[in-house]
Write a structure and sequence with these properties.
- With 239 residues, the protein is an all-alpha fold.
- It has helices spanning 2-30, 44-53, 55-82, 88-124, 130-139, 148-172, 176-201, 206-238.
- Helix 2 packs across helix 4, helix 3 (55-82) packs antiparallel against helix 4 (88-124) and helix 4 runs antiparallel to helix 5.
- It starts with a helix and ends with a helix.
Amino acid sequence: MQISTSLDRQVYALGYWSAIAGITVAVIAVFLPLDAPGGYGAEHAERINWLADNRGVFTFAWVIQILSMTTLTLALFAFAWQIAARRPLRSLLAVAVLLVSFVAFIIPKFIAVWSIPLLVEAVTGSADDGGLANTLLLVLNVSIPYSLFTSFDYLGFWLYAVFALMVAGPLLAGPTSSKLCGGLLGLYGIAYHAVVLGVLLGAVLSKDVEFFALSVALLLLLTLITAVFNFRVLITRAD
């Protein structure tokens, strides 16, 4: 019993500090560019020139994105742990979905940190494989919603939405702070699925996908803010 209580406290502490770190990283990320000015509408040549001139800040911005997804995933994991006592199977399945979402997020972000700068170097240099590198840069465009790069990102957000719907109900049965988190997660899960449905039905145009997806993702930031209070309450109860 003592071991279980101690483990609960450690997981909730992990969620607490991850939420604080996630909020901090999110604030930093706002001031860092993830693509060339113009994003979706930028010409390919303009993007290459911008990436060549801003390699350092581009790489740093995507490292911050990796930290952002890591801290958010850890905070969400603590939510899954919170419902484990009452809904063990749902908690286990939710963690499985969460782990897959983390992999989906890490793949494009590692590509942004590792592959894209090297591809730009190949295109702008005298490398023999410059043509292949140029083609790959088109495939790995970080702003066009139907590129291979962004497809992984939107897959990650969709899996977050599935996770959110899995844990929202049990969280609503908890204390007030837990109810707030559950409500925000449930709203995110529903809203993001609405965006996905809008894209599939053609109601959301390609140029508008990023706006809708990021607008809905603000609910995750609000979830992190309420998570700080939620896990603080749980830590206190576990002491």
